[in-house]
Amino acid sequence: MPAVTRNLTVTALTTALLGVGTLPAAAGGFDTIGSQQRKTSGDFSGPALESRVSITVKGTKAKGGGPVTSTAVDWEPPACWYEPYWKAEDFKAFTEAKWSMYKSAGGAPEGIAADQARYKKGHPYKDFNVDKNDRGMWWVAVKNPEMKDDPAAKACTRDPFWVDNGQNPDVPQAIDTETLAGLAHQRTVVPPTRISMAPDGRSTVNAPTWIWLDKGAFKPVSVTASLPGTGLWATTTAKPVSLHIDAGTEDAETLPASGECRINEDGSIGEPYARGKAELTPPCGVRYLRSSGDGTYALQATLTWEITWEGAGGTGGDLPDGTFATTTEVPVQEIQAVNR
Would you tell me how many other CB atoms lie within 10 Å of the CB of residue 335? Predict the structure, then answer.
């Protein structure tokens, strides 16, 4: 049987097997890196499995929001990891079914000889460890679905391995609370940065435009990543700490000059405009030096969120801050003077 036809047949058979419920319940949309996908012979991998990591988001969900962008250039969430997936009896049933399908599709015995030796014939595992079915799990490699094309997603190359209950696998990139915290950080979604401005609607050249965020405009956003049945969980909490203003043109001055407006003790940012403050300099704002003509300037307000985490076993710490930007189109007019 031609190799292409054989692989297509095996894929179809594996799809049928998956459809009759041989896989454990899965959630979170994470794909595994099947060891068979790396082999040039005996390829019977079929559709990828899914990680059992679940994500729960708590916080304000508003139209126009989105995921935060990490401020750290040298940090990124995990691209792949290892997690407990199969009970011994389930792994045996699934793997032997794949072997059977491979043979039915015309596969040569040597194509699965190494796997049979590893999992069934005692090199190093005997009969898939079914005598320890309730005393451990088979661990597999999984990819982060948000980073499938990242070269780092290919770094988890170990074949499925057995870990007794309560034992530390002592394997680099084995899932732990810090891994879950990184995944939660990646799933942190915050509301849009809706600033208040005065004047509202049209600014004037050389006159300050006041910018502020009222107290309570933003509430902390928390995300929990957990792995059911393991006791592993991590929760991140994001809180706003500062607002950065970019006027959208070089013909402008930000107030303060750095464009960084720190959060006040009461949770607000900047100061609301009120009558009588027209000649004052706002603690947060912008002064445009040239008219926008018939167009507008794209003022960008970027809110920085401080992100911390806590997890099972008293673990926790700080994660890189996240940012989210919202753009406001600002028309700027010249002051009209009348000479008499």
Answer: 9
Cis amide linkage into residue 256, ω under 30° from 0: yes
pLDDT of residue 311: 97
The Cα 84–Cα 142 span in angstroms is 10
Q: Specify which residues 161 forms β-bridges with.
A: 139
Phi, psi dihedrals of residue 243, rounded to the nearest 5° = -125, 130
Per-residue model confidence (pLDDT) at position 122:
95
pLDDT for position 61: 66
Residue type, position 74, single letter: D
**Ranges under pLDDT 70 in the chain:** 1-49, 60-62, 336-340
Residue-wise pLDDT for 62-84, tens only, equals: 677 889 999 998 899 999 999 99
Residues 180, 226: Cα–Cα separation, whole Å: 7
3-state helix, strand, coil in the chain (%, to 5): 20, 35, 45
Amino acid identity of residue 32, one-letter, is: T
DSSP designation for 292: -
Closest CA to 99 of 39, 161, 45: 45
> 86: helix, coil or strand?
strand
For 102, half-sphere exposure in the C-beta direction (CA atoms, 13 angstrom radius) is 22
The residue type of 5 is T
> The tokens 């002051």 sit on which residue?
335
Closest CA to 256 of 274, 239, 275, 271: 271
pLDDT of residue 49: 63
